[in-house]
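Dear support,

I submitted the protein below through the web form. The confirmation email said the job was done, but the results page showed an empty box. After a refresh the structure appeared. I'm attaching both so you can tell me whether what I see now is the final result or a partial one.
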Amino acid sequence: MKAVISGSFDPITRGHVDIITRAVRLFDVVVVGVAVNSAKNGIFSMDERVAFVRDAVAHVPGVEVAPVEGLLVDFCTAQGAEAIVRGLRFGGDFDYELQMAHVNKAMSGIETVLLPAGREFGTISSTIIRSAASNGGDVSDFVPPAVAAALKERFGG
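What the results page shows now:
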């Protein structure tokens, strides 16, 4: 069985890697779809984000990485995925993801599996990482090494 985990991954965090690693235990193949979120001000290009994700999950067998263009359900269909996996950090995530799960199911028949964030990753978000890094904070405990280095180069510190 194949599943898709999508997100902007701008940047990918250790929390994302945790969800991906746990999802691959549930599915034969997990495709990480790197998407554009027009509601967010990104800092890395699509090519950079795809490369960071590939690097971060290179040690995890059964994971593929691809850019997403258009609707997630169309990407899932093109990938032959039978499920979408989404990580949850807190209640607000659940409210949003439940709405999306219903819409995605209605549009495509694809089921959504919600995985709670690991205890140590529940407060990490790409938004917080971008904010901390842009203000000179050391985020190396929260992101893969290549991302930490790129953030340091981008923002100094």
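Response: this is the final, complete result; the empty box was a page-load delay. The radius of gyration is 15 Å.
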